[in-house]
């Protein structure tokens, strides 16, 4: 969980960086997106690794949750979980499943059309199409709403998960408070970037 | 003080249990929680009813026998104490108190509030020892120099009394804090190095075999531990385990 989680956290950072360029410069966004879409190392090595990372992370998460439920066959009549552990740490499966459902929508929105465009329809390369494709997706207020809520849930997931992955890998030392601060800052800033991008394109396009 | 107790009654592990209500009065704030249960049991005996079975031994917080989930928290609402050290002044007149056994599949109920924690014994037996010749020429442990901070950390880990509050508090019923304390107390000392790799692997394997859940780092165990065993021990055990596994 920890290793696949850290890998996905790293990926989120680079995804947010590329997407942020769509707000600053459409040309830069198009050029970076084209590179990511057609570079063979990205397409045939990094992309399968990323998909494998996502699958490993959520399958392991669900398996661990099932094992954990089995470990307490009789539930407490009264269980005061909030007295000793934060809500986010006790509800990783909930926030994780929301993020997973969001990934389904996200793949349907961007990844599936992209794969169809390149590999099924075999369209010619067009390095200028990415920015307007992105902006069109954020015209729908419903979609923007779902994205915003999902990223709030992602922030909650990262708030616990990023710091927790260090503990799972045995890192608990004098640097841990600094690591915790960094991971919590990251957990807020990265989802906020995604939320900002979705809102920016929505309001910039319609107004 | 008048209280309404809702106590888990269960004949044995094969039968279904349920919460039974017992109104009780005349409870003093200076009584311990177990003394309050003694009062209840005396009343039940006098009425010809079966007393409530619960674990207890030293009644001074060092044996790890008492094991009650009180109002949803192991050892009750106070911190760094066991149930026997919990005073009734922590409750108010008229309160309802729900009392259940520590719940985990690996801790089956024997009767009422008493549970079988022999899973912890088996985890310790899997690796909680060091190789010392005890034939009469045993070297005094104090003859081996140990860094102060490591000696202190080892001692702190060794203060775990194996009560099971960590398992009871954890939403996953994980025994990682207990197992890591038992691993750490040896892993930090020179005498523990001989079986270090084997120890952590065997104890973790036994922990999994017993059916405890996985650690998701909620930290509930550390908060509820009556001896303040730190999550650092879990990180240390994870390091030891990863290193031992990498070496084969």
From TrEMBL, chain B:
UniProt GO molecular function: 2 iron, 2 sulfur cluster binding; electron transfer activity
4Fe-4S ferredoxin-type domain mapped to chain residues: 151-181
Cofactor(s) of this protein: [2Fe-2S] cluster; [3Fe-4S] cluster
Gene3D superfamilies recorded: 3.10.20.30, Alpha-helical ferredoxin
PANTHER family attached to this UniProt entry: SUCCINATE DEHYDROGENASE, SUCCINATE DEHYDROGENASE IRON-SULFUR PROTEIN
Family that this chain belongs to: Belongs to the succinate dehydrogenase/fumarate reductase iron-sulfur protein family.
Name of the featured protein: Succinate dehydrogenase / fumarate reductase iron-sulfur subunit
């Amino acid at each position: 969980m920890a290793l696949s989680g850290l890998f996905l956290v790293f990926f989120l950072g680079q995804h947010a960086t590329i997407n942020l360029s769509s707000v600053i410069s459409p040309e830069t966004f198009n050029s970076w997106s084209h590179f990511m879409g057609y570079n063979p190392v990205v397409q045939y090595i990094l992309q399968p690794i990323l998909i494998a990372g996502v699958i490993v992370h959520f399958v392991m998460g669900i398996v661990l949750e099932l094992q954990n439920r089995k470990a307490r066959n009789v539930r407490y009549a009264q269980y005061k979980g909030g007295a000793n552990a934060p809500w986010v740490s006790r509800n990783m499966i909930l926030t994780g499943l929301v993020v997973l459902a969001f990934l389904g929508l996200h793949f349907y929105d961007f990844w599936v059309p992209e794969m169809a465009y390149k590999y099924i329809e075999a369209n010619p390369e067009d390095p200028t199409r990415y920015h307007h494709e992105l902006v069109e997706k954020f015209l729908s207020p419903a979609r923007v709403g779902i994205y915003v809520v999902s990223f709030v849930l992602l922030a909650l997931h990262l708030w616990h998960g990023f710091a927790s992955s260090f503990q799972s890998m045995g890192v608990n030392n004098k640097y841990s408070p600094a690591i915790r601060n960094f991971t919590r800052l990251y957990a807020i800033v990265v989802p906020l970037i995604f939320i900002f991008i979705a809102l920016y394109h929505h309001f910039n396009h319609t107004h | 003080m008048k209280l309404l107790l809702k106590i888990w009654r269960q004949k044995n592990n094969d039968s279904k249990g349920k919460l039974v209500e017992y109104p009780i009065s005349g409870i003093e704030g200076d009584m311990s929680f177990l003394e309050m249960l003694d009062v209840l049991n005396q009343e039940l005996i006098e009425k010809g009813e079966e007393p409530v079975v619960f674990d207890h031994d030293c009644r001074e917080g060092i044996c790890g026998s008492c094991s009650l989930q009180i109002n949803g928290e192991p050892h009750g609402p106070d911190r760094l104490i066991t149930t026997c050290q919990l005073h009734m002044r922590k409750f108010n007149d008229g309160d309802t108190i729900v009392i259940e056994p520590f719940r985990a599949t690996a801790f089956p109920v024997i009767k009422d509030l008493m549970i079988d924690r022999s899973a912890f014994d088996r985890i310790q037996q899997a690796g909680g020892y060091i190789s010392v010749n005890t034939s009469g020429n045993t070297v005094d442990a104090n003859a081996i120099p140990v860094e102060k901070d490591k000696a202190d950390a080892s001692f702190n880990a060794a203060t775990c009394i194996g009560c099971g509050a960590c398992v009871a508090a954890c939403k996953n019923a994980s025994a990682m804090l207990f197992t890591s304390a038992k691993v750490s107390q040896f892993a930090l000392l020179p005498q523990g190095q001989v079986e270090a790799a084997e120890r952590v692997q065997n104890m973790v394997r036994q922990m999994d075999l017993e059916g405890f859940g996985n650690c998701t780092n909620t930290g509930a165990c550390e908060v509820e531990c009556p001896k303040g065993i730190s999550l650092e021990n879990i990180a240390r055990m994870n390091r030891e385990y990863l290193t031992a596994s990498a070496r084969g």
